[in-house]
Amino acid sequence: MALQFEVLARFNRARASRLTLPHSQCETPLFMPVGTQGTIKGLTSTQLEDIGCQIILGNTYHLALRPGADLIDELGGLHSFMNWPRSLLTDSGGFQMVSLLHLADITEEGVTFQSPVDGKPMLLTPEESIAIQNKIGADIIMALDDVVKTTTTGPRVEEAMHRTLRWIKRCINAHKRPTEQNLFGIVQGGLDPQLRDTCVKGMVALDLPGYAIGGLAGGEEKDSFWRVVAQCTAGLPEDKPRYVMGVGFPLDIVVCSALGADMYDCVYPTRTARFGTALVPEGVLKLKHASMAADFRPLDETCSCMVCKRYTRSYLHSLVTKEAMGSQLVSYHNVAYMMKLSRDLHHSILEGRFPEFVQGFLRKQFPQGD
Ligand code: GUN
Ligand code: ZN
Known about the structure:
Strand content: 15-25%
Largest sheet: 8 strands, parallel
Bound molecules: guanine, zinc ion
Distance between the termini: 45 Å
Radius of gyration: 20 Å
Number of helices: 15
Shape: globular
Strand order of the largest sheet: 4-14-13-12-11-10-6-5
């Protein structure tokens, strides 16, 4: 195992912990911004360091296509290729192929897809995904899983869960750098409590360095989503990190943290920034709106980020959708907002005032109490 995980404090099921990885020390609850081609869209690695990010996500699928895992390996791994001294996590690639390419076909061997570069058929097996992730060299690597949409029902959900359990064993056998990279297993099973239970038990028996809860945030009802998270966190070990994949709305992070989850990732804060939306304690601020044209306040009066210190809503309104700088500045604030939310959660749990923090958060987001 190449990590240390220490729970520092609890409030009911919520945990504040310290996660020590080979390249940095992180505090949970923890939001991880998502990069695709070895970059978080619109932000430099120096800016990410300034904002306080300790770990960012890269995608095996994108990186393997361009610039290619062998090239990254020759250049000393992704940390040195992108000049990012802190921690990295790579997703296994299967989910991206299935969600991005409708042509992907899943068999017991792996995921077959048409290369978007040259159209040739390619096969990503659990062994190949791990070999690529070993070359990229992230601190945390993810098992290849068989993901179905949360809205899928019937035998396909069960098949995917059992296949995910068979594939994790192939991933473990293929993993060549267990003392430098942490392989996390992913719990699947759709919205079915029986299937989730089987998958949690199967994963826990393998004594992995950490566990993810996958297959969520795909259009299911909020209470089904939260029910699955609650069930999985209850069955996962207390002394290992728990990561809910693809989750990144501030409200979901607060709720999942209350349910005992520790780590999250999502493109939402940077994607929504590119559409001119800023994250604020009251919810969202649509910068394209005409009312912003003469609003000389910062995006968020309670935010101490560089953008909130220097620029007005009015100035950002004039940039968004016209100048690349507009989405860059809003992305900077949005990622800073997520980092502050993570820190606030951590400290409120540590200081025994988690319920008050959650109440304050909800009151600002839903002032009418709805
Ligand atoms: N990203 C968001 N959800 C998932 C998932 O279920 N599996 C993987 N591998 N990545 C994800
Ligand atoms: Zn700000």
